[in-house]
Amino acid sequence: MEANLPSFHTVVMQEAHAAEICTWSYPPPYNIYGFLPWEQMKGLGVEFGDPGIRLQQYLSVLDEQDQLWGFAQLFPMAGVTRLGLGMRPDWCGRGMGKRFVQAIVDEAKRRRPSDEIDLEVLTWNERAIRTYRKAGFYIADTYERLTPTGMASFYCMVHDPMANEE
Questions:
Q1: pTM for this prediction
Q2: How many whole angstroms separate alpha carbon 76 and alpha carbon 118?
Q3: Could you write out the DSSP letters of every residue in 137-164?
Q4: C-beta separation of 68 from 48 below 8 A
Q5: Which of 35, 67, 83, 141 could lock 156 by a disulfide, CB 3.0 to 4.6 Å apart?
Q6: How far apart are CA 3 and CA 115, in angstroms?
Q7: Selection from 142, 125, 133, 141 nearest residue 160 by Cα
């Protein structure tokens, strides 16, 4: 069964990928992860709507046929690369998350090999938390912070390279 699963690689996010990502619609409660329409993102110059930020920080995650499966942001901080990521909604929950996340971690390590790698995840998002654990992350901190919909509880999960060794 493992052999039938796709393998993933990353590329710098192209504008066509960004526009496609803006069309994705997640079911509740995951709908908070959706983006504004592409023309609005470009017009406001927010997130991957800003060509400079897209070039420096955003990746598209593709399979062997270069089909878009998702995206990642590699946000550089002092000694840390913070990941933000999203998978195409109709492919979430189908058992490919570990490989998907690993491709992103591999690129983060390639770009800044000495950095710690972490991410933030809402504490209620158990599906993502399970995936991140399988990909070698552990919960290092819990805190609340402001989101567009108000205060919310988050975990900071840190990648432990030893956790992936079997």
A1: 0.92
A2: 11
A3: EEEEEEEEEEETTEEEEEEEEEE-GGGG
A4: no
A5: 141
A6: 31
A7: 133
Match 């690129």 to its residue by tokens. Answer: 107
> How many residues belong to the chain?
166
Q: So what's the pLDDT on residue 163?
A: 62
Q: Which residues contact 32 (CB under 8 A, 6 or more apart)?
A: 26, 147, 148, 149
Q: Which helix (H) or strand (E) holds 106?
A: helix 97-111
Distance between terminal CA atoms of the chain?
18
Packing angle, helices 97-111 and 126-134, rounded to 10:
60
pLDDT at res. 161: 74
Amino acid at 163: A
Look at residue 1 in the predicted model and tell me its pLDDT: 42
- Is 80:118 a contact under the CB 8 Å cutoff? yes
Find the angle CA(120)-CA(106)-CA(134) to the nearest 5 degrees.
55
> What residue type is assigned to position 20 of the chain?
E
pLDDT of residue 119: 98
Tokens 């470009």 belong to which residue? 42
Low-confidence ranges of the chain (pLDDT < 50): 1, 165-166
